[in-house]
Design brief:
Helix 1 (8-24) runs antiparallel to helix 2 (35-55) and helix 2 (35-55) runs antiparallel to helix 3 (59-85). The two termini are 20 Å apart. Helix content is 79%, strand content 0%. By secondary structure, the chain is mostly helical. It has helices at 8-24, 35-55, 59-85, 91-122.
């Protein structure tokens, strides 16, 4: 079992989830079950999939969950842009959240590539 708390990817994902919750609290009430909920779920999914992947025994399962986390991070990045264009997020918070989502994507991508190379070397 791997310790997710030692991963930079998890630290970024956790920071992203907390920041998304803080900033979506001001979204319009009629978006409570729309973009607000979707953005929060996607942000939590990034961190949750890293945690679940770390708990898996096989390297293949670990990579599969990191792939899902990576996809969710890209989803968050798009939804931040959408929220900004709809006027739900001001430019500066949107820029900061987007930068955090992009950094999460990059770190996850690097981790996934490294693990795939490790897996290929052992196959």
């Amino acid at each position: 079992m791997r310790d997710h708390r030692k991963l930079r990817a998890f630290e970024l994902a956790d920071e992203l989830a907390v920041a998304i919750y803080k900033h979506t609290g001001t979204f319009p009430r009629d978006e409570q079950f729309g973009l607000t909920s979707q953005l929060r779920r996607a942000a939590v999914s990034v961190a949750s999939n890293i945690v679940e992947g770390c708990a898996r025994d096989s390297l293949a399962d670990y990579i599969r969950f990191l792939d899902m986390a990576h996809g969710s991070a890209h989803e968050v990045e798009y939804q931040i842009s959408l929220a900004n264009r709809l006027g739900y997020l001001d430019d500066e918070p949107a820029r900061k959240l987007s930068a955090l989502a992009v950094e999460s994507c990059k770190v996850l991508n690097g981790l996934i590539r490294s693990l795939r190379a490790e897996k290929q070397a052992t196959d």
